[in-house]
Amino acid sequence: MAKRGIKVGDEVSITATVRRRVTEDRVSVSIPTYGYPHSIVDKTSKVEKGQPIELVGHVIHIDENRVTVQIGVPVTVDLDKVRLVTSYKPPVDVPT
Known about the structure:
The protein is mainly β.
């Protein structure tokens, strides 16, 4: 288990910043500590440059102070840049 109680399988949120609208249905976002350009599908909202946007995904790997989150593609960020949304609860085996 990692710091702050975040573990593999948890649903977490990353606050990204909108950089610009790429197409009518895509926006470019800046993800803190990620270091690579990223774009997301955004068909419904009218986000503008500089506006924060929440990206939600599941933790697939934790290593020291970094966490990899599946938000369509795997994104690795510093652990302090994610916020726990829902803790993973493994299924309970029911005897048959």
